[in-house]
Amino acid sequence: MCQLTSVRIQHAGMQQVGIARVMDGVSVVDGDIIHAWRSLWLHATKVYAVAAVWLSGRRGVIGSCFPGVGEWAVYVERSGRGNSVVIDAHCHLADMRLASEDEAVMRRAAEAGVRGMMCCGTCADDWDGVLAIGARYPETVSVSLGLHPWYAGGRKSGWLEALEGRLRRNPAAAVGEIGLDHALADFDAKEQEDVFAVQLDLAIGLNRPVSIHCRRAWEPILKVLGARSGAGLRFMVHSFSGSPETMREIVGLGGYVSFSGALTLPNNRKARKVAAEVPPDRILVETDSPDLMPWRADVTQVVNARGRPSGVNEPANLRYVVEKLAEVRGSGVGEVAEMTRRNALEFFAGVMR
Ligand SMILES: [Zn+2]
Questions:
Q1: Residue-wise over 251-272: b if at least 16 C-beta within 10 A, else e?
Q2: Interval between CA 145 and ligand 1 midpoint (Å)
Q3: Model's pTM, two decimal places?
């Protein structure tokens, strides 16, 4: 049990319009569902909005305010250890931006309730770094090794044997990040597909779950995955950016769909529409840190040239993804945390504690 310290109701975006402080002495336990309600009304020529937040099974509203009209969000803060337990299904802890301060990164993740992380490799040069991080934090970090499509062109001979050797020596290692990327300025589709397919077959042979990257290559990737349906392939598509139809095809093939901080970007309505429709037993959350910084409405955000939040992302920021997912699915934060944690443990069975 822990104290609920504040529930903030505010516009998505940078301008904070309303703050609802929680009444003193409200405590919550894991699994509590927090509900939010908003109403609009017209008076004379102005539109007014009022929002209220309450806990399941308890009487009375625990906070309310006038959040203004437009897209809005509810953020819940709890004291200390009471955070929901969550699992980051895809991140890159061996990246120097995080590995250079791994102790602080792990401490902040623990404080934010992140109890499990799947640390993915991208090329032969980082596989040993990934394994080292996993060995250093065996209680929380699980590992995944693979050749990312961005590095398919630069692979050296013997890469597949090197990968297979490491996977065999580490029976608790998954496969990834692998996939297809047709959004690159310059790429060889055939080469990407060959490198992807051979790693999928390796994963099937070793019965390891696979973390898949896909940008603007949905048709070819569904063909490659479909050709292996029934072969025992276990896969998730990370930071999903496809359509609702593609999502349903992936689910139909037995896959999981994972959402990152991209879900929180104010103009990413497409991802939010898909996220609302994914079956509850097939959805995962991730940070893809140190990239894909989530949009945080509770701070003044520094944006890059593309208008996206910049800076080094880290697993502790997973809560912004969980909170947004809860909002778009009309669920409680604790409920989404628990649902995605269970799904991650099921999907990563055998490779994650
Ligand atoms: Zn990644």
A1: beeebbbbbbbbbbbeebeebb
A2: 11
A3: 0.77
